[in-house]
Amino acid sequence: MTEERQFGWSNMFVTPEEDPRSQQGYRGEQAVLVGYLDDYRKTLVLKCAGLDAEQLARRSVEPSTMSLLGLIRHLAGVEHYWFRIHMDGYDGPRLYRSGDDRDEDFNGAVGDPEVVREAWETWRGEVAFAEQYVAAAPGMDFAGAKGDELRDILVHMIEEYARHMGHADLLRERIDGRVGQ
């Protein structure tokens, strides 16, 4: 059953006064890049708010394996790869990649509360690592372990979140009819 499509101020995830995202007033290159990335991270949390494990794991349409839970896991893996592995030089295994399954982040996103808890915990841990890493970096020109400049990684992360928040919009609308914001 498809829910009725809803749109308008009354169906926003939060009121404009309660919206944790700012998307304005940043001064300087680092503040702009970090600020916009933070706003996209907050958007992920907003898009998933109020959903249970089954709803978070609900797939979009076959044959896609995409779900909001899969996006949480995927973005945890992206944070891990770019900040912990690529920039900091961590030499361990990648998150949600085992054997031949390059899509374990989505394929393993099942409607189990423990899987949801673990995904959020992992995502929050990787975001915290990234935030600390960026705060400690000497500047936007700083080159990480693999040679990329921090500015390039931050721009890439903004692009990654922006693309996936479009997916999150459609996934959320499919779950309960909520749109926008």
TrEMBL record:
InterPro entries: DinB/YfiT-like (IPR034660), MST-like (IPR007061)
Pfam hit, one: MST
SUPFAM superfamilies, sorted: DinB/YfiT-like putative metalloenzymes
Gene3D superfamilies xrefs: dinb family like domain
Residue ranges, annotated region (Disordered): 1-25
Source superkingdom: Bacteria
Protein's name in the database: DinB family protein
Organism: Hamadaea flava
